[in-house]
Amino acid sequence: MILPSNRIIAKTLWMIAGLNLVPIALQAQTIWLPGSDPVNIARSGVGVAFGRSLEACSINPALLVTLQSPRSAFLSAGIEMQSTQLTLPSNEYVLFSNDRNRFISAFGAGWRVTPKLALGLKVDTPFMRHLELPKESSSRFYGQAIDLKSLRTEFQTAYAINEAFSMGLSVGMTRLDYGSAVSLRALIPNVATLPANDETNPVEALLEIPVKQTGNVLALSYGVGFRYAVSSRWTLGGSYQSGVKGRPNFAASMLSQDLDIYNTRGFSSPPPPIGIEELSRTLLDAMTMLPGDGEVVLPYKIQIGVRHRYNQLMTWEADLRYIGASAMGIPAQPGINTPSGYVSTLTKSYDFKNILVISGMLEINLGNNWTARSGFSMDSKFYKGNDLDVMLGGANSAGFSIGFGYKSFGGELSAGYQFRQTIDRETNGLEGTWSVAGLSSTGTLTRVECMGHILSVGFKRSF
Predict the structure, then answer these.
(1) pLDDT at 10
(2) What's the predicted TM-score (pTM) here?
């Protein structure tokens, strides 16, 4: 093994540090990931023009014809973590979300059929979002939990029209798993099996019920890309990755059958009348859980980048991504049919917008065996105006990543890490109160901050 010199190591550390000292005033804690394999994570999703990289082929299939090995494949596994912090500025009361961790994996393969034709396969996780608010948060009336997962499998092909220009196509299916939960309150009248009426069947108390819905759907996904080598050192690349759209086959149920009872004003004190527990159990038996309506619609991505091989040791690339977030959509929350009528949360209208993402990466070869990687990505908010949603996030934010590769066991062992942080945003309309009159907003300001980590390790081998 040839170890890098101290001079090269020092130069590398300074470059990586400089790349990561981009001001953290702003990749977003968004629903899309920079990648699910260690190389793309370490590059912050940059690499649409980065040839001779099997991992970059998952971003741009046109790069398949640049692979030097006749056959190659990689496999990786890691963990993705998300957390949301809610603060009430009026009293500085702070709450943190739960359900923070998810397993992520990726697989890729490439085959050189002829000098001009190549085939490939990619399996990755393009979208993910998950969190659960604690019971103490009054935002639970608008949404208590979300669990969005995806698994994309696409077959790829690339053709080199000449040595400088190639095109690629990727087609397959994406499985979307979507779940959400919300806390609802039902009227408990004097006769629980009959509709509530102020004169003949008055309301005695309120029963809070957390309701969830889960489902999945398979949807078509595809991508196209190109690569143009301007010279031996400069390359231009671009790709389009379709969005994903589908209507999950939802099933709704209660998260818990514990009796969580409140008085008609919506508070636990003074306590509801004695004997209300029996009426609550009767009401539970008379309820039916119903899933919400709507489709899961996730955005498309257009990415273009310029790669420069500065010398044999260092390569950098700058990418622009255009995210078609304006077409995004999520299903409505589940509801409950009760003897007194249908109970649901207030309908929220999402006003999304398309965004531009600025990103860059640096890769340095340290001797014959080691490779150091670093990257950054800055996302603008995907809500119009001052809107913000706890379940989806969406504020201005940034991501910074590092990673390495080490040649061993006849292949390359890689690791990648990214830290993601949003800017703090204060907004109203997230806190609610639910009395006998129904759900209403308190108008209290809430400061929302999201952060996350992605860590993955993998191994690539040529055959």
Answers:
(1) 45
(2) 0.91
